[in-house]
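Retro notes, item 3 of 5
We never archived the inputs for the adenosine-5'-diphosphate complex last cycle. Fixing that now. Sequence and ligand:
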Amino acid sequence: MPAIEIEHLNKRYGATEAVRDVSFAVEPAEIFGILGPNGAGKTTTVECVAALRTPDSGSIRVLGRDPRDRALRALVGVQLQESGLQDKLTVQEALELYAACYREPADWRALAAGLGLTDRLGTRYAKLSGGQKQRLSIALALIGDPRLVILDELSTGLDPRGRRDVWALVAGLRERGVTVLLVTHLTEEAARLCDRVAVFDRGEIVALDTPAALAAGH
Ligand code: ADP
Ligand code: ADP
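Structure as it came back at the time:
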């Protein structure tokens, strides 16, 4: 059974066809990239997988279930571009709050340390830099120790060192057999991290292959 199976997904916003007849399957423990320029329909696709949007048509199965199935909350971690965190929460409070939502949470202190957040535990969300907010949103996606992680533009706002940190984190997920659906507009990021990549353009998949095969085809 694929970890994610999408068949003939369509989603429009008014006159905009954001996603058109998109189909792909992500295998368990695979790191699957969605690569493409701004406006290609990447975020809309993963928002449908995360049940944050309702497809106009097509079908999506996540770990064999309907994306809206409540049982998925304990199995799927999601990092999106807007966190929706309260400005007044400190990093530690946010980590503890999220950890409390799970029966067997990951060790939030270790996660914070791995993401270079240890010296920011007492800092309120509003006072974090863009890169620090990004690190926190990744930590929160991982705090439930999920089997499947959705990461939307994980290196946004990070400097080269921060980028290396989060890339190492994804490599660690690979070693633990976690399935990752990773959205990026950076070819280098997709090539380094992903087993296979779906290239999106104007709402459609225009290529789907390993990074090496995609690079050889150009
Ligand atoms: P990407 O993540 O690849 O940048 P998106 O899925 O965000 O692409 O957007 C795909 C298309 O849908 C774009 O043309 C975008 O402007 C449009 N779009 C995205 N979200 C909305 C929305 N909430 N309302 C109207 N149009 C939207
Ligand atoms: P931003 O540029 O948004 O402030 P950075 O990625 O630069 O975010 O990280 C903020 C600070 O944290 C930087 O000064 C960087 O040197 C430091 N930093 C980055 N990664 C680590 C880490 N793994 N451990 C400790 N400190 C780190």
